[in-house]
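The protein record quoted for completeness.
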Amino acid sequence: MRPRSAAACASPKPRANSEKLQISPKLMARRDAFLKEQERSATYMDDFFNEVNTRFRGKPVSIMAHIPMLFNVATEGLKRGLENVFAKDTFIWRAAA
C-alpha cells in the first residue's frame, strides 16, 4: 500500500451523498458556554494578578507548576510592574516538562 501525501490526508474529498451533520443539543450548549468563557478569558489574568497582589503580597507561599507556566506568569507579572510580591522564603517547585 502506498503512503498518502500530507495534502491528501489533510483535505478529504467531499461525498456526493453527504447528509446534514446532526449535533446534540448538549454539545451545542457546551460550545456556547465555551465561547462565552473565551470572551471572558481576557479578564482572567487581570483577576488572577489582582488576587495575588492583594491576598498574597508579602506572604510566604508555595508554588508548584511547569516551567512554561511559571515563565508566562512571571513575564506577565513583570509587564504589570509586579516584582518581589511574595515573601523571601517562598518555595517555588518547578515540575519537569
Observations:
- The first helix runs from residue 6 to 10.
